[in-house]
């Protein structure tokens, strides 16, 4: 569909926009890729058939009907941070619904449930929650991520051990389904659809609005950052062993979460504790965290908003918010999958010896578990309730991802997987662009996949909401 030609698809999309400017764009339009498509991973080129920015749920419904009539697949883009540009369709030819205009917010001060437009970014969400009663909810650390994708795939972050994931806070949604209908879904209305949307949302519809439960903001927050610089990765192995022992403790205080980030100059260890300095010291964690201690220079006492800002700053040290060409691998670990000391040594020695192909790389290990395991394994489509750690690798190529970079990350991944053969799944937010649809859906959703495919058959039998790694309908 081009701006200089007429087609049925262009005609119906133009009709949705009417006289609105900045509403729809096509591949032949100037600055289409830069101003409209704006891919996050520049290593995954993609050209959508069109990008439309709806103003409301009715616009979304009309666009879905237009796509059905004209043979387009549909994907929604909230923040646009998919590692495979899946919000842009993941491959050429999709109709992209950019939810940038859906940023409404309201707070019910009786239930403390917030209603949030699906185009809202996490940083702005935190501001709204803070300004409307000093409230909070669990989510990830990057303020530029949109809630639309985040809260439908998982939404993991430092608060998850204490409060669960972002999708665990969703109590109701407004969603446009494949027939172009505007639906409500919750535990009591369209329950099977609601189940699937919380974990695999991009395969089942376009959510336009979330209703989420919230918590009172924590008071004091302890932020811990410890950097080991200019050492070899081999020197980092014993430090990682100590860190993994800490986060692998089944009785680890739920108010605490941590990351270990291996990177070119050594390693960074972060910790977040939601409580007072006295409570932190009484937890016993300062005596166990590598480099830590009650008098560590890496400890900062702050408040909720200060903590969010600090976490975003640390995240930028490992995964930038900027569009770049990059590659990534990942795995999720149960307690029995944690790495042995021999495997740890082998992995870190490999990181020293291998040709990395770039200086812009990070191997990131996150603590998980805690409250994530409180919800029943089949309560939502999210399948990783039994995991206590995740890892993801991330490397940027300039000007593109080279074979050397891929071989380096795949080498790290192979060493880790050989040492943890039971770790055969991963979080669908840390996607691997090399996997095909059948492999990816099995790795991302595991035991939840059969039910997901049945729900897909009921709600989207013609696979309208589709990308290269989305759930397929049951046959």
TrEMBL record:
Taxonomy, superkingdom: Eukaryota
PROSITE patterns: FAD_PCMH, OX2_COVAL_FAD
Pfam families attached to this UniProt entry: BBE, FAD_binding_4
Gene Ontology terms for molecular function: FAD binding; oxidoreductase activity
Keyword Flavoprotein: yes
Residues of the FAD-binding PCMH-type domain: 44-217
UniProt keywords, alphabetically: FAD, Flavoprotein, Oxidoreductase
Annotated protein name in UniProt: FAD-binding PCMH-type domain-containing protein
Species assigned in the record: Cylindrodendrum hubeiense
Lineage: Eukaryota, Fungi, Dikarya, Ascomycota, Pezizomycotina
